[in-house]
Design a protein that fits this description.
The chain is of the alpha/beta class. The chain folds into two domains: about 160 residues, HUPs (Rossmann fold), CATH 3.40.50.620; about 120 residues, Beta Barrel (Elongation Factor Tu (Ef-tu), domain 3). The chain is built from eleven helices and 14 strands. Strand 2, helix 1 and strand 3 form a beta-alpha-beta unit. Helix 8 packs antiparallel against helix 9.
Length: about 300
């Protein structure tokens, strides 16, 4: 999968595209229905399949204080999209220029001139352009001059509710990992580079992989995890995702994963951390001894989980 950033100034590329557009936070079953249709149309007509998304979320630009937390980082999102067969990922920086761009300009300059869109696949609630003026009707009205077809995909039901990013955020915030997995069609995971930390975990008998994650991520707590990217098979472990309130006051968000029965050099490697079950919320301890005692309990519970579940 190729990744592009921004609206390309080039005109009329040599091939057409089947395009789907949205935020795709979490890439849940509803998003996957859009992607599947776009990919299928591309294959049927010998087009490139392209997914257009925005970074940051538009709500984070207009109302940063009330913006929803991120479900996943961009690297994890890209990994899911590549697995779904998307040829191109277009990431548009959502700032003033995009927020004030008219729906007509977005259609002409980006969808027509940059992408040469032939098929457009959108959700039933999709809006675009300044003041959210762009919608299904406007895209359909532009079908004749721009030569594209518009396909509207209705909401997907997951159980008794509509599959949505807001529902997925609620499940993840509650630590309901199995319910979130059902809504995503796969276990929740994050990806990132392993960096050097303060080696505190090693000194306490629990060496960890330290992985930076987006600061606006909504998930936190201690989890049963498995880590891929360090060998032929995923490695079982336990991980803390949070702000390290006992030992650090910086407020930055960090994922720390302790792997069971493994040793090696992971620095600089890209790993995938899959979350299986939440053990507890993040907590502040009065002493390192108290924290270490709780780490023993967390590790024991995680090992017990893997003794009862096969992944």
């Amino acid at each position: 999968m190729l990744i592009f950033q921004g609206i390309s100034p080039r005109r009329r590329p040599p091939f057409g595209r089947s395009v789907t557009i949205g935020n795709f936070d979490g890439v849940h079953l509803g998003h996957q229905a859009l992607i599947h249709r776009a990919v299928t149309l591309a294959k049927q007509q010998n087009l490139k399949s392209a997914l257009v998304t925005f970074e940051p979320h538009p709500r984070a630009y207009f109302s940063p204080q009330s913006a929803p937390g991120k479900i996943q980082g961009l690297r994890a999102k890209a990994a899911v999209l590549a697995g779904l067969g998307i040829d191109e990922l277009w990431i548009l920086r959502f700032g003033q220029s995009l927020a004030t761009m008219s729906a007509e300009d977005f259609m002409q300059k980006f969808l027509f001139e940059s992408l040469q869109a032939k098929e457009l696949v959108i959700g039933d609630d999709f809006r675009f352009g300044a003041r959210r003026r762009g919608n299904l009707e406007l895209l359909q009205q532009a079908s004749n001059p721009y030569g594209w077809r518009v396909h509207c995909i209705n909401a997907v039901q997951a159980g008794d509710e509509r599959a949505s990013s807001s529902r997925l955020r609620t499940l993840l915030a509650r630590g309901e990992m199995r319910e979130a997995e059902a809504l995503m069609g796969h276990p929740y995971f994050l990806c990132g580079h392993v960096i050097h930390g303060k080696k505190l975990g090693r000194n306490l008998g629990y060496p960890t992989l330290n992985i930076p994650v987006p600061g606006t991520l909504l998930l936190s707590g201690v989890f049963v995890v498995s880590v891929s990217g360090l060998g032929d098979m995923p490695i079982a472990g336990v991980a803390s995702l949070g702000h390290r309130p006992t030992v650090e006051q910086s407020g930055r968000l960090l994922l720390e994963a302790h792997l069971f029965d493994w040793s090696g050099d992971a620095y600089g490697k890209i790993v995938q951390v899959t979350f299986h079950e939440k053990l507890r919320d993040e907590a502040r301890f009065e002493s390192l001894q108290a924290m270490t005692e709780q780490m023993h309990i967390d590790a024991q519970q995680a090992r017990q989980y893997f003794s009862q579940h096969v992944h």
